Amino acid sequence: MSSNALPLISSRQVREADALAQARFGIGVDWLMEAAGWQIARLIDQPAVVVCGVGNNAGDGLAAARHLHRWGRLLGVSCVDVTRLSGAAARELEALRRAGVEVASEPELDPAAVVVDAIFGTGLTRAPEGKFAEWIEAINASGKRVISVDVPSGLDADSSLAYAPFVDPDETITLGLPKPGLSQFGGRVTVVDIGIPLEVYEAVGVKVPRDHFASGDVIRL
Q1: Element (H, E) at 68
Q2: Which domains does the chain have, with CATH numbers?
Q3: Would you call 216 exposed, middle or buried from its count of C-beta atoms within 10 A (0-12, 13-18, 19+)?
Q4: For residue 148, what is the enclosing H or E element?
Q5: Whole-angstrom Cα distance, residue 131 to residue 136?
Q6: 3-state helix, strand, coil in the chain (%, to 5)
Q7: What is the pLDDT of residues 187-206, one digit of tens each?
Q8: What's the sign of the alpha-carbon dihedral 144, 166, 136, 221?
Q9: How are beta strands 188-192 and 171-175 bridged, if at all?
Q10: Which of 15, 39, 89, 211 could join 192 in a cystine, given CB atoms 3.0 to 4.6 angstroms apart?
């Protein structure tokens, strides 16, 4: 399917859609995060490591890591600072730990065929710094196949502004709808359904075709 056939969603509309899904339909961030993690994991068919930040994008990555672990495809997971995880992301961390998976404080990328980038999501508005920047640079230097979650870390989801540094992925698995910034960066873009009702998108100003996912829950652009 052509990217022209799908509407785009801004970072502001993503935040509004998440809130409205809960308020109007009872579909909380936990449900959306779990759906995102499952979709991400099932599209990764090689041994992988998952590299997480501290926000909801990290939660998506932790959910994906748990499923990869169940399927025997997880080689490691790391988080910039687990003490900063909160809400649904913290609950994904707890579920992963209860499954027997330790979360490292530094990424070990060498054993993996695939590195899953779950450091930053759609909310980034400035250049990554400190440990976040170091981990992004390590991912780019790894020589591995890189898959970003929703948007590449270090990319402004709305403007296509690529901060220094930013992850330069082979593929981006974007959630629900494509983001404007993916028009120039993101590698191969795959859109996956995470269960947000079309009425929610319409309420935040995004007109989505009724047959958006009629032929399947994965759309490769």
Answers
A1: helix 56-70
A2: 3-220 (3.40.50.10260)
A3: exposed
A4: strand 145-149
A5: 9
A6: 40, 15, 45
A7: 999 999 999 999 999 999 99
A8: negative
A9: parallel
A10: 39
